Amino acid sequence: MNSNALASQDLVRKAVIEVAQLQDKELLIVIEMVDTLKKQRARPNKELAAEILAKAKARAEEMKHLSHEEVVQRFIDATERIRIEAIEKGTAIEGEWESD
Prior knowledge:
The chain is an all-alpha fold.
């Protein structure tokens, strides 16, 4: 077991001991705090999604003057750059796409 796992176990053990000694009213507060922490943890995904959506809308606005053919060509060029980069990083294999 690594030191991070041991440290986590120690923290959990300490938290359990501390929480076990609380009165019922204080336990309710702890439960509410845990619920708040869970909600806060979920929010970054919503914020990231909103950020991605805003960027997509801005990009669409930038490209609205282009013809359909120009947009398609940019898409093809972008996917080719991504494919080449993936091959260089070793996360894709040359020719893999053609066999799909």
